[in-house]
């Protein structure tokens, strides 16, 4: 059976589709102008001298510098360190919250989200107040006699890591908590009735069922921490230099646009590599979950 | 969830003590600045020996801070006023088109939220430098709008998915033009989501620091830029006062949004 459609109707449908497409144009235009064009411009700038001539000199200069490679290592150490601590702190917290009664859990979640609603510079300031040599934590430690000398807690790697974990943890917690909340409690009752211990239930029921949430949380943490700037710049005190602070220094202190762009491109490449690895990991995760479901 | 294990009291106590410590870690830096902001001393004493409002006076009587506050409020308002209509139109478009087209529009619109701020900042710096627009309010505004559009989309997309499109078709068949259909039907019905989107866009701009640090300058410095610069030099309890005010305002806004959505 052939259906003949009135060409006028088809033209109408096409016109309507074009109209709906045109509604996204303002938003697409601003994203193109202020996000995509700037990224392309970084690529262009990385091949230009200060005078505006074509060169690959920026690349040879940046890639042959030891500072660049140590910045790359610092970036990875900070991101992976932040992720590891978020997993260790976040999963038990999510488990506790998911096992609480809904009213209690909602109230506690509001408190957990408080840092998310606090401006990043306010939090950074809070950490400075807490962690400095004359800060509250050191005052408490020396005052109680736990340590004779104040500990170096800030303007170094430790302080940066503390600040970054504090920023990322709520972002990690949200998807993990949501995944755990969605677990059917009957599954746990069933496991308990068949004699599974609490440890076994956590290992074989709760963790596999929240793997998706843990994965999303980890992706968020990695994506955000790889280019993180404010925390290393303030809490690192100039001694912790991931790619982001190197970029800022190249641009603001040395007016070296070429080097800043090459460092920016390194950051882009790193993001792309992590993106590819995460996609592969997700595929692997999906396969093992399916395999486990069939086993 | 774990009520099937009433006998594991010890495990529960360990789990909850750990959770309490982590929650304390999360709340500590926000809360610690509050008593400091009321301290009479310029030293970091905790708890303060004497209380005063001198750091609040300091803030409100400083021309530099007041100019930054003004800039930030103007930027936040303009950002919300531009980003939310753009996002609403784009969400209507994605909602109607569906399928692969909508998915590709969405992935383009979400790019700014997954791109590191430092890359957007230096890229925008280069683009604006070519037009001699570095240091202008316009330059920072463009950067803030592009960050606020994805935020507003995330709020509005699910709201539109719940919206019954037949109402718009009814209005159209009765002769309403598109502007009337959107303004008279979609906007009033989505007003709560639009309010949340507006506040989120405003807060996105208010809290944005990296683009401001690179693009804003002099008279056009924003609050986060000024805070960043003063944190690098020294710790002044004026910042504790600012932090307390800021957090109080944000908490009030968030509570209002949460309560309105519940009712």
Question: What report would you give on this structure?
Answer:
The complex is a heterodimer of chains A (295) and B (263). Chain A is mostly helical. Chain A is built from 15 helices and no strands. Chain A has a domain at 72-237: MetI-like (MetI-like fold), CATH 1.10.3720. In chain A, 78% of the residues lie in helices and 0% in strands. In chain A, helix 12 packs antiparallel against helix 15. Chain B has a single domain (56-262), classed as MetI-like (MetI-like fold, Orthogonal Bundle). Chain B is globular, with a radius of gyration of 23 Å. By secondary structure, chain B is mostly helical. Helices cover 79% and strands 0% of the residues of chain B. Chain B starts with 8 loop residues before the first helix and ends with a helix. Chains A and B meet through helix 1, helix 2, helix 4, helix 5 and helix 6 of A and helix 1, helix 3, helix 4, helix 5 and helix 6 of B.
Tags for this entry?
heterodimer; A: 295 residues; mainly alpha; MetI-like fold; 78% helix; flat; B: 263 residues; 79% helix
What is the assigned CATH homologous superfamily of chain B? MetI-like
The oligomeric state of the chains shown is heterodimer
CATH class of the domain at 72-237 in chain A: Mainly Alpha
The CATH architecture of the domain at 72-237 in chain A can be given as Orthogonal Bundle
Mean of all residue-level pLDDT scores of chain A? 89
Counted beta strands of chain A: 0
CATH class of chain B: Mainly Alpha
SSE arrangement of chain B, N to C:
HHHHHHHHHHHH
Biggest interface, CB < 8 A: A-B, 90 and 85 residues
**Relative strand content of chain A:** under 5%
Over the alpha carbons, how many angstroms does the gyration radius of chain A reach?
A: 25 Å
Q: How much of the sequence of chain B is in beta strands?
A: under 5%
Number of domains of chain B: 1
How much helix, percentage-wise, in residues of chain B? over 70%
Q: What order do the helices and strands of chain A follow? A: HHHHHHHHHHHHHHH
Distance between the termini of chain A: 47 Å
Report the count of strand segments of chain B. 0
State the low-pLDDT regions of chain B, or none.
none
Described by the principal axes of the CA atoms, the overall outline of chain B is globular
């Amino acid at each position: 059976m052939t259906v003949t459609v009135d060409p006028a109707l088809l033209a109408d449908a096409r016109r309507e589709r074009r109209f709906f497409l045109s509604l996204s144009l303002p938003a697409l235009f601003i994203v193109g102008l202020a996000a995509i064009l700037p990224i392309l411009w970084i690529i262009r700038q990385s091949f230009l001298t200060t005078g505006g001539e074509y060169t690959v000199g920026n690349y040879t200069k940046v890639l042959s510098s030891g500072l660049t490679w140590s910045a790359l290592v610092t970036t990875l150490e900070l991101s992976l360190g932040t992720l590891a601590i978020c997993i260790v702190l976040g999963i038990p917290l999510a488990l506790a919250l998911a096992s609480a009664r809904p009213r209690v859990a909602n109230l506690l979640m509001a408190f957990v989200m408080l840092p998310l609603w606090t401006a990043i510079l306010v939090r950074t300031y809070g950490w400075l107040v807490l962690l400095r040599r004359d800060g509250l934590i050191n005052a408490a430690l020396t005052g109680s006699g736990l340590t004779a000398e104040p500990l170096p807690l800030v303007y170094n790697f430790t302080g940066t890591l503390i600040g970054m974990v504090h920023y990322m943890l709520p972002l990690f917690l949200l998807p993990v908590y949501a995944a755990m909340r969605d677990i059917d409690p009957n599954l746990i009752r069933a496991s308990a009735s068949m004699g599974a211990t609490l440890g076994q239930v956590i290992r074989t029921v709760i963790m596999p069922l929240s793997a998706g949430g843990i994965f999303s949380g980890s992706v968020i943490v990695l994506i955000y921490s790889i280019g993180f700037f404010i925390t290393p710049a303030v809490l690192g005190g100039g001694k912790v230099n991931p790619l982001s602070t190197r970029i800022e220094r190249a641009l603001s202190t040395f007016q070296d646009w070429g080097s800043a762009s090459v460092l920016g491109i390194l950051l882009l490449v790193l993001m792309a590599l992590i993106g590819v690895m995460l996609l592969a990991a997700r595929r692997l995760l999906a396969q093992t979950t399916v395999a486990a479901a069939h086993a | 969830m774990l009520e099937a294990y009433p006998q594991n009291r010890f495990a529960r106590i360990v789990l909850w003590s750990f959770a309490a410590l982590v929650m304390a870690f999360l709340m500590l830096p926000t809360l610690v600045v509050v008593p400091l902001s009321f301290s009479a001393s310029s030293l970091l004493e905790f708890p303060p020996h004497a209380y005063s409002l001198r750091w609040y006076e300091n803030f409100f009587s400083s021309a530099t801070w007041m100019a930054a506050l003004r800039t930030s409020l103007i930027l936040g308002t303009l950002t919300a006023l531009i980003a939310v209509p753009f996002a609403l139109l784009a969400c209507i478009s994605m909602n109607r088109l569906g399928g692969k087209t909508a998915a590709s529009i969405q992935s383009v619109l979400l790019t700014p939220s997954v791109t590191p701020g430092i890359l957007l900042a230096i890229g925008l710096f280069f683009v604006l430098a070519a037009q001699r627009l570095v240091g202008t309010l316009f330059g920072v505004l463009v950067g803030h709008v592009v960050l606020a559009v994805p935020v507003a989309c995330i709020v509005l997309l699910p709201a539109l998915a719940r919206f019954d499109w037949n109402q718009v078709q009814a209005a159209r068949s009765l002769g309403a033009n598109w502007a009337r259909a959107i303004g008279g039907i979609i906007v009033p019905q989505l007003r709560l989501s639009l309010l949340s989107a507006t506040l989120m866009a405003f807060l996105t701009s208010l809290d944005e620091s990296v683009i401001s640090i690179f693009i804003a300058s002099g008279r056009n410095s924003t609050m986060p830029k000024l805070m960043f610069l003063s944190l690098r030099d020294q710790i002044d309890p004026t910042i504790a006062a600012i932090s307390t005010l800021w957090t109080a305002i944000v908490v009030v806004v968030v509570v209002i949004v949460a309560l309105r959505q519940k009712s």
